[in-house]
Write a structure and sequence with these properties.
The chain has 432 residues and is an alpha+beta fold. It folds into 2 domains: 3-157, 3-Layer(aba) Sandwich (Creatine Amidinohydrolase, Chain A, domain 1), CATH 3.40.350; 161-429, Creatine Amidinohydrolase. The chain is built from 12 helices and 14 strands. It has helices spanning 3-27, 55-58, 128-133, 146-157, 161-186, 191-202, 266-284, 292-309, 317-322, 325-329, 387-394, 402-408, and strands spanning 31-35, 70-73, 80-84, 106-110, 122-125, 142-143, 214-217, 239-248, 251-260, 376-379, 382-384, 413-415, 418-423, 426-429. It has a 6-stranded mixed beta sheet. Strands 7-8-9 form a 3-stranded antiparallel beta sheet. β2 and β3 (80-84) form a beta hairpin. It starts with a helix and ends with a strand. Mn(2+) 1 binds at residues 254, 336, 380, 417. Belongs to the peptidase M24B family. Bacterial-type prolidase subfamily. Residues 166-423 form the Peptidase M24 domain. GO terms for molecular function: proline dipeptidase activity. It catalyses: Xaa-L-Pro dipeptide + H2O = an L-alpha-amino acid + L-proline.
């Protein structure tokens, strides 16, 4: 591990400690206790699903699989990390790495799942309902106070140098997986084998991915959150869409690439290139002060131009937008905040904590803020051929070139996605 990363992590922790202490003083709390959470078994079973620790806990401690653990931040001494490390021969207990950040905490290894000693004036942040359901005792403290939660979320919207370094490394590792996935597709592999190639090249097991990888061939590329992996290769290969990520110290990459297959119409490759160009133009316009809703609307203007330039729509750009045509061909938002969580917190609030919901015409938009230096966001324009969304348009007189649309329908769709840091004078693309 590089000395630079360790120095950045130390500065990150110092800034967090200062911010938390300011919040304790502002809201008159004795301490703030962050609960990491825990996995619960499937109903009627003793098997556990994959677990990831609560984001505010991971914001401090790069142990994103740590269950039943607590971090208590005090106003006048080092934070106390109660790390659950049971005596267990069935599983390997959580272990502390030999890294400098450990010295920033008073670490107490706990062989039992405990609740630390807390005063009545402690703010407790985490899944308290699950804790109580599992038999955890909380005699004292104030659970998840709204004003504090909003303030802690706001601390996560602007990333430190340490966090950006982690996100950059997550991107590097994820892109190795994307390259391997493309090679497997070229080798006529099935979706499952492409997924396995991705996991091997990005050096992770499936339960460690920050979200379920989307590996969709042909029409599956038009299912926005396609959740399966076919075990047989299709007879014809029109397209491959890979939306897949990687964690590094709890921070998540979220990258999408679409590839043309040997059986696709020539127009599909031209559309992939056009959507890459749209992505790049949108990224080039990123700078502090940009309204993300306006940028999302600009994506629809760009998409209308692509459809007109490639003869998919024979009307005006204004008509394509006003009639909802671009929304039918791209029903999701342009992007979202990225960090410990793939869809990171505070995207639908203003900096002062006021709600900033998605516009009525774009309900799937996950980010409505004005861009600020230190934000990390995704930019992911798309163009899809989804029968359910296009069916209502077929009954209209709108000048859609259905002959071309039907030729492209077996390809499913296109999405391209990069991860971007907003800097003081523009942007930096983390996706190599």
């Amino acid at each position: 591990m590089s000395e630079t990363l360790h120095r950045q992590h130390k500065a990150h922790l110092d800034n967090l400690l200062s911010a938390y202490r300011s919040l304790m003083a502002q809201y008159d709390y004795d301490s703030i206790a962050l609960y990491s959470g825990h996995a619960t078994p499937h109903y009627g079973d003793d098997q556990m699903p994959s677990f990831q620790a609560f984001g505010h806990f991971v914001h401090w401690v790069p142990l994103w699989e740590a269950e039943h653990s607590w971090l208590v931040i005090h106003p006048d001494k080092r934070p106390t990390l109660y790390l659950y490390a049971p005596n267990d021969f069935w599983h390997l207990p959580t272990m502390l790495p030999e890294e400098p950040w450990v010295a920033e905490f008073d670490v107490q290894l706990c062989t039992d799942a405990i609740t630390p000693p807390l005063t009545d004036n402690t703010a407790i942040v985490g899944d308290i309902a699950a804790l109580r359901a599992s038999g955890g005792a909380l005699a004292n403290g104030q659970a998840n106070p709204d004003a504090l939660i909003q303030a802690l979320d706001e601390l996560r919207i602007i990333k430190s140098d340490y966090e950006i370094t982690c996100l950059r490394e997550a991107n590097r590792l994820a892109m190795a997986g994307h390259e391997a996935a493309h090679a497997a597709f070229a080798g006529a592999c099935c979706e499952l084998d492409i997924q396995l190639a991705y996991l091997a090249a990005s050096r992770q097991r499936e339960s460690h991915t920050p979200y379920s990888n989307i590996i969709g061939m042909n029409q599956h590329a038009g299912v926005l959150h396609y959740q399966y992996y076919d075990v047989s290769a299709p007879k014809q290969r029109y397209s491959l869409l890979v939306d897949a990520g990687r964690r590094f110290r709890g921070y998540s990459a979220d990258i999408t690439r679409t590839h043309v297959g040997p059986d696709a119409p020539a127009l599909f490759e031209a559309l992939i290139n056009a959507m890459h160009a749209v992505k790049d133009r949108l990224i080039a316009s990123l700078t502090p002060g940009v309204d993300f809703i306006a940028l999302h609307e600009q994506m629809h203007h760009e998409l209308a131009e692509v459809m007109i330039d490639h003869d998919l729509f024979r009307g005006s750009r204004e008509a394509a937008i006003a009639e909802g045509i671009t929304r039918a061909f791209c029903p999701h938002g342009l992007g979202h905040s990225l960090g410990v969580q793939v869809h990171d917190v505070a995207g639908l609030r203003t900096a002062s904590g006021e709600p900033a919901p998605a516009p009525e015409n774009h309900p799937a938009l996950r980010l409505t803020r004005t861009l600020t230096p230190g934000m990390v966001i995704t930019i992911e324009p798309g163009l899809y051929f989804i029968p359910m969304l296009l069916a209502p348009l077929r009954n209209t007189s709108l000048p859609i070139n259905w002959t071309l649309v039907d030729q492209l329908m077996p390809c499913g769709g296109i999405r391209v996605e990069d991860n971007i840091v907003i800097t003081s004078d523009g942007f930096h693309n983390l996706t190599p």
